[in-house]
Amino acid sequence: MPWSDQGGPRKPGPPNPWGTPQGPWGGGPQGAPPNLEDLLKRSQDRLRSALPNGFGVNGVAIFILLALLVWLASGFYIVATNQVGLNLRFGAYVGKTKEGLNYNWPSPVGSVIKLNVTDFQSTDIGSEMRVQSRTIVDKPEESLMLTGDENIADVKFRVVWKIDETKPEAYAFNVSNPPATVKAVAESAMREIVGRSQIQRLLTAERKVIEPAVQELMQRVLDGYNAGVKVVQVQLLSVDPPSAVISAFRDVTAAQQDRDRLKNEAEGYANKVVPEARGQAARIQQEAEAYREQTVAEARGQTSRFDQIYQQYKKAPDVTRQRLYIETMERVFGGVDKVILDKAGSGVVPWLPLGQQPQAGVDTGARK
User: Fold this and answer.
1) Which residues, 6 or more positions from 124, have their beta carbon under 8 angstroms from its beta carbon?
2) What are the tens digits of pLDDT across the range 78-135?
């Protein structure tokens, strides 16, 4: 027998809780299997001694009461700061609880669903990250989309979303698979927006317009589903033509960029030259106006002078005529060499050039 002695006599083991020496199986006498009936009998005796009136109706009632208290106490639960608790009673939603210690009927009557309402989740469309190999795999069945001008664009984007804190019960009960629903709605919304645009504008100008348009359309569709999802952001990862024609599209894009650059340079040159030309035109116009004003003023002055002389001439014609003659001769002969002849014909009239004589006390430099 497996419990018999195999190598000579053994010392009896320590006594068991019932006071008998343990055998090799921890039961009856050494070398014998445990007596199950004896164990059950001793257990019942100890339980009867623990209860005041024996293991009767009162003992059963106390046992049931203790079990009921333990069952009711198991209904306490804790909700973390980033969570919301949804209380269920017989599988039906009865309310939600905030962070802290809360209570609900324990299982199987009640249950609690805890949702992380502050955590952000991201869904990639058009590509997938393989965690094991740490590589990004393209998914053309999701990224290839038809544009409004009947071209094909390879659009890869990411949607950042979270559970709506105001209605987490909708997220838990209205949609069976919220991440898959968000992905399907995002792909559908992007295809609709891309289908309204042209390929060239998608590759250049409208990339920043697509993101808010897709986010708004996604939120409207998810609210129609009452999915309890809030779209935080839509990020375009890449917008490219198909790989077969990507080189031609890049050439077209480069040509358009050169065109825009040359256009900007021409506009800059025009903005520089046109103000200068306008300034020069304004300067010439102002100079012409100044010349006109000067000429008119001089003409008016000459006219006024002539009128004044004429008035004096009418008062004394001979004197005025003689004065005009002398002033004219002075103006004509004042700066030339002159030889004065006598009117009677006697010869040159001697004259003393007083204006050319040196003044007294002024050294002319003739003496050495």
Assistant:
1) 156, 157, 158, 237
2) 888 888 998 998 888 888 888 888 888 888 888 888 898 889 999 999 888 776 767 7
ω into residue 108 within 30 of 0, thus cis? yes
Q: How many domains, in total, are found in the chain?
A: 2
Determine the 3-state secondary structure of 259 from DSSP: helix
Report the C-alpha gap between 152 and 242 in whole angstroms: 7
**Average pLDDT value over all residues in the chain:** 79
Residue 62 contacts by C-beta under 8 Å, 6 or more apart in sequence? 51
The Cα–Cα gap between 315 and 79 comes to: 122
Whether 95 and 186 share a structural domain: no
Helices in the chain by DSSP H: which ranges? 36-50, 57-73, 140-143, 168-173, 178-195, 199-203, 207-225, 246-315, 317-333
pTM, to two decimals = 0.52
Q: Given its phi and psi angles, is residue 310 left (phi above 0), alpha (psi -120 to 50 degrees) or beta? A: alpha
Q: How many helices (H) and strands (E) does the chain have?
A: 9, 11
Beta partners for 146?
A: 152
Asked if the structure places residue 214 within a domain, the reply is yes
Whether 154 is covered by a domain: the verdict is yes
CA dist., res. 190 & res. 208, Å (int): 13
